[in-house]
Amino acid sequence: MYVGGAIGDKSFPDEQKELLEKALTVASVPHTIETYPANHGFAVPDNPTYDEAAAERHWVATANFFTSVLGS
After folding, report:
1. Torsion sign (Cα): 8, 14, 16, 20
2. Which residues contact 48 (CB under 8 A, 6 or more apart)?
3. 10 Å Cβ neighbour count for 41?
4. What pTM, to 2 d.p., does this model score?
5. Do 58 and 43 touch, CB atoms closer than 8 A?
6. CA-based angle 62:20:22, to the nearest 5?
């Protein structure tokens, strides 16, 4: 599982991130959780909160994660 959260996302505060991290670890679910210095919706080009640099980093990380789990 790959989760890319945003600092500016009130629905995914650090407490939730930590809870999710612990639950996935206990369940032995392979995962990566990252927090981007951006606002919620940063990776969607037609959102007002779109952040090109964060979005590019997010999509590269997402592709790398899927490649590592599923292969090329």
Report:
1. positive
2. 41
3. 16
4. 0.79
5. yes
6. 115
Residue whose structure tokens are 């989760």: 3
Per-residue pLDDT of the chain in tens (72 residues, 90 and over written 9): 899 999 999 999 999 999 999 999 999 998 889 999 999 999 999 999 999 999 999 999 999 988 988 886
Rg for the chain, CA atoms, rounded:
13
Q: What's the 3-state SS for the chain?
A: CEEEEEEECCCCCHHHHHHHHHHHHHCCCCCEEEEEEEECCCCCCCCCCCCHHHHHHHHHHHHHHHHHHHCC
Q: Which two tokens stand for residue 1?
A: 């599982």
Angle at the Cα of 60 from the Cα atoms of 14 and 67, rounded to 5 degrees: 100
